[in-house]
Amino acid sequence: MRAQILGGAALATVLVLASGCGSKKAPEPAAAAGGSGVLTLGASLSLTGTTAKEGGLTKEGYEVCKKVVNDKGGFTAGGTKYTLDIQYQDDTSKQDISAQLVDQYNDKGVKLILGPYGSGPTEAAAAVVERNKQVMVDSAGADDKIFAKGYQRSFAVLSPATSYVSSMVQALSDLANPKPKTLAFISADDGFSKTATQGGTDKAKELGFQVLATEYVPNGTTDVSAALTKIKRLKPDVIVGSVHLAEGVAIVKQAKELGVVPAGGFAETVAPPIPDFAKSLGAAADGVLGSSQWTARTAGTDKYFGGAADYARTFAAQYGGRQPVYQNAQATAACLAAVLAVEKAGSTDPDKVRDALAALDTPSFFGPIRFNSKGMNVTKPMAVVQIQSGKPVPVWPTDSASGSLKWPATSA
Amino acid sequence: MTQFVQATLYGLLQGGLLALVAVGFSLVWGVMNVVNLAHGAFVLGGAYVALELHDALGLDPFVSMVPAAAVLFALGYLIQRYLVNLVVNAPIFITLILTFGLEMVLENLLRVWFTPDYQSIPTGYAQDSLRLPGDIRIPYGKLIAALLAVAVTVALVYFMRRTRTGLSILATGMDRGAARLMGVKARHVYALTFGIAAAMAGAAGAAEGAVRTFSPADARSFTLFSFVVAVLGGLGNMWGALYGGLVLGVVMSWGSQLLSGTMVNAVAFALLVVLLAVRPQGIAGKAFYASRVEV
Amino acid sequence: MSTVDAPAPPRTTTVVPAVAPWWRRSAPWVLLAAGTLGGIALQTQLYTAQERVVGTVFMFVALATAWNLIGGFTGYPWFGQVGFFGLGAYVTALCMYHLHLSFWLSLVLSGLVAGLFAAFVGVPLLRLKGHYFAIATLGVAEGLREVVLNLPRATGGGGGLTIPTLGPDAPTRWLGNDGFYILFLLIAAAVVAVALAVSRSRAGYALRAVNQDEEAAAAMGINTTRTKTLAFTLAATLTGVVGSAQAFRIQAIYPDPSFDTSITELAVIMVMIGGAGTVLGPILGAIAVQYMSEWLRENYTNAHTFILGALIIVTVVLLPQGFVNYLGDAVKTRRFSLLDNVRRYRL
Asked: Over 90: is that where the pLDDT of B258 sits?
């Protein structure tokens, strides 16, 4: 008891003392006017936790942007020469920490934010950005829901979730011969995947496909056998997965185990363009369609990165010959959009940068970057790839394809 | 009907693997009253050992179960001997928190060493399957894994019931004081128990690596399912994990067939809570450690 | 004595004289008031983001203290605290989103719902002992998450639910970092006050008696079932209130983070490191662990979980009974050696 009282007294004293000798300073101004300066962007990223892998890919993309811009000697805005600096903090894949980090950047005077990975943290960050009058360029939060709230200060360079599945459905309709008639959907039950599924089923009905079933599975599961068993007797022409990597691998793997062979093939979001997909599945990956935000054949150039193929070379040079995946490219594109907007605004003032972003309309290695009134980049098409001999080959849209669709993609 | 049989068989196979994942967890809990939250990290450790051996030597993951078990045995023995033994007499929460800290450390090490990438160990045959009448499929990979799981569990039971070492482990679990009076070196026996449990986890990890993708973030879910399986089966029964795993596998498989696929975890936890309310000693549990399961 | 274990080491039980001098009886209350005022004073010195960080510390002070009511005093290993946290969060989100109730009303409702649910499940659950209680409560928490996931019409399922905080739809305006700092400070102070009151009441001694020997306590005429269920309900109610406040602060509610088991684990760690069964222990534990984890995350981007894990291991090896209990014993016996302390619990 006495120890408790003593300890409590000590604690109270410390609190009072801490409050007495704290030092609240005004945030420093972001950059000096005239001459040269450093533009600091803040990023809250999932470097540990459930999306550590994807957070790492996003960081790589930001780093490429920083290196390329600074190697070119930085950029000029309003007569000031800027170099680029990006601060990172780990949000441990948790949205409340992501929100807290955006607040912390604000206190440090960092007003321009690069987005975290995933729709949950992005949504939390977007709310804080709005309140603090910061500006965020979102690189990986695709759920349309984020942009339905009337936020004015968050801009996503990537195509929205609804286009992930619908692009593949469109590609099937355009290219597949014989044209499949029936589709069955397997969807993870997180918000992003469900939104993507919704977009896909709407598109399928519009294009005259018959949707036989939509089965939901737990987000991140490695067992989709129940969904496959239910789908098996429906004999769909194509099984469409609105998933992430773990579920995407499981669908192909377990379909093989269970003898579920769609007459056409498989189509999946997110998973196929990631090298781990083909590596995990070996030959079974061949023929799987995937949707991708970006491929090395994406049309468009910009002054920092050139075209998509140039970007791939730049990335490979920085990361030991590894080819970029779309998660890298979308991160670089978000950073690029921020730089272009600051240039255009001629200032690092967040309000001016916001207006410049809203008015941005430029081609880039990532495709066109132009935001609608909600802050979504709807002009940019998704690309559709097909795994051929273990490599994702862009097959749609045909003007930026490097191969033709092999169909049917499965052999009974 | 075919669909039902397929679901049941598949559930049994999944359950066999779940049993192998959980058997070590159940052993440590039963004998030492330690809930090892680092168990899932041990399972992943086994998976990564198998992955490394596959990449370096082209070793089949099912063959790698042996070296994976050996590596994890050594790790487990050392951890118990020099760490967990330090607090084994403290309230149960303390060992729980210790192993929680251990899990954080191991998970971070795995992430740094092996990157947070999703991995799997490809084999030529794991996805091929045996075809039964009515187009019911039994995939070879899961079949081998499940059979090995049963074999390893049987071997463990034999070891525990028929060898001097096994009996001294059981005796220590029942009454440590008396066992020490009989000349059992409790420190060594505890370390051995933890080592065996870790070895089981390592072997399970290698088998898991052959049939699914894994990444360091999966440690938690392995631990959670071990928890459920161990309680379902009942502690103190060497067969417990096997029963628990098979029941859980089948119930989850049926649950996602009859209800929605997203209900699968809800079904698992509903089963758990109901069973605990009705029959806390588990499906197969006897009042084996009744004299000692305290608190 | 936090939890009972078979070869229990000898420990003296804290015996409070029937009538303590007035200054000693009121000292904890004065300190609590001083601490709360100190917290308010501290706010003037913080950046807004620091307010958020310190607000989270207060949140964990409240959670750990609530956990301690059942986990520390009675020694029941409550592993499902986050279930009530998530329940409170979702009740608030549903009330504000669908019914457009004000936050303050939702806050009260969240506490009530969490408490009622606890009273309902508490009776069968509290019949279980030890690890069985732990796993059953864990199962209830996981089950609640699954229920939320499988009711997408009401809860948005995995897509989450966003509490309206701006514009005409918002039943209550968002409180801002300043407002939430005060809110969490007051919640923490209230929870600590409850713990203080319980700790020194008849019920508190009954709970400790249940911890030491439940059968003997029953034989002494303590209605153990009622005592346990009341403590459980109280702890759940307070947890539900905390969950409600956190939901409003985050706005966008998702099932996985709302029912994240690591929230329970953190609360348990804070109580254990601080000292189970004491009022001060969970407060110190929460401040120490939360401050440490924030500091490590900011300074060691790649190794912070490693370092925190290692620190937890070292701490529990050196102080298995928790800091406050260690200090209390050490002051009494004049033995401060940590090595002696390790020797008591090792094999």
From this structure: no
